[in-house]
TrEMBL record:
PROSITE patterns: LRR. Belongs to the RLP family. Its main location: membrane. Keywords: Cell membrane, Glycoprotein, Leucine-rich repeat, Membrane, Receptor, Repeat, Transmembrane, Transmembrane helix. The chain crosses the membrane at residues 185-207. It is found in: Cell membrane. Pfam families: LRR_1, LRR_8. It is a single-pass type I membrane protein. This is Uncharacterized protein. PANTHER family: OS01G0160600 PROTEIN (PTHR27004:SF428), RECEPTOR-LIKE PROTEIN 12 ISOFORM X1 (PTHR27004). One of its GO terms (cellular component) is plasma membrane. It comes from the Eukaryota.
Length: 258
């Protein structure tokens, strides 16, 4: 009987004279709607989203040391995010989106080591986004705050801002452009190098032999041989053509005589 009582006490339930039933609830956790058919007695999540709450978030929120999840999104909350949220060391997720919160993001929020999900979008927050720990890994939690600046947003705050990491694509483009220019200059250098080496070699031969005319005569003999070969080809072709004409004339005369 004691074991049954212990197991039953793990969930929230109501017992009266007529019936015994367990509580159930639908909550929005980390942006997803979840229906809890049974509620654990150790359930430490607050979901007050999509109401008409207004005013400031009280500093006393920092006294809820065991709180693991807090959803105050889609309300009309104003003022600053209380710095006491830095005391919620067990907080795993926080959703303050779609309100009218202003001011800077508390530094203590970036120091929460258990925080794995955050949404501060669509508010009036401003200033530099705190850096550190897993705070840099959240996906788009700051959208819709035009006055926020710093990483991971593309908007810069000023000279002291921690700028975005350099883009690898632009770096690759610059490297490719530099590589292309290097190829062009390499080809040009090769062309000049070949021409210069040929001229140096020719000049070296002329200076060493001390006979510039030798090189000229060598070229002249080569040209004469080329001309002689051309003449021989033309003479042979002319003789063949003459023989063919004589043979044709002979055949014509023979046929005419008959």
């Amino acid at each position: 009987m004691k074991d049954k009582a212990r197991s039953a006490s793990q969930y929230m339930w109501v017992n009266n004279t007529r019936a015994t039933y367990q509580d159930s609830i639908t909550v929005v956790m980390k942006g997803s709607t979840i229906e809890l058919v049974r509620i654990l007695s150790m359930f430490t999540t607050i979901d007050l989203s999509r109401n008409f709450f207004g005013g400031d978030i009280p500093e006393l929120i920092g006294d809820l040391k065991l709180l693991k999840g807090l959803n105050l999104s889609h309300n009309n909350l104003t003022g600053k995010i209380p710095s006491s949220v830095g005391n919620l060391t067990n907080l795993e997720w926080l959703d303050l989106s779609s309100n009218k919160l202003n001011g800077e993001i508390p530094r203590g929020l970036a120091d929460l080591t258990m925080l794995s999900w955050l949404n501060l979008s669509n508010n009036h927050l401003e200033g530099l986004i705190p850096q550190g720990r897993q705070f840099d890994t959240f996906n788009h939690p700051f959208d819709g705050n035009p006055r926020l600046c710093g990483y991971p947003l593309p908007k810069a705050c000023g000279a002291d801002e921690q700028q975005l990491p350099p883009s690898t694509s632009s770096g690759d483009g610059e490297e490719k452009a530099q590589f292309g220019h290097w190829i062009e200059w390499w080809v040009v250098a090769m062309g000049y190098g070949c021409g210069i080496s040929f001229e140096i070699s020719t000049g070296y031969i002329i200076l060493e032999t001390k006979r510039p005319k030798w090189l000229v005569r060598k070229v002249e003999r080569w040209l004469m041989r080329m001309v002689e070969r051309t003449r021989r080809k033309k003479t042979t072709r002319s003789k063949k053509n003459a023989a063919q004409r004589n043979h044709a004339r002979y055949l014509f005369m023979t046929d005419f005589a008959h």
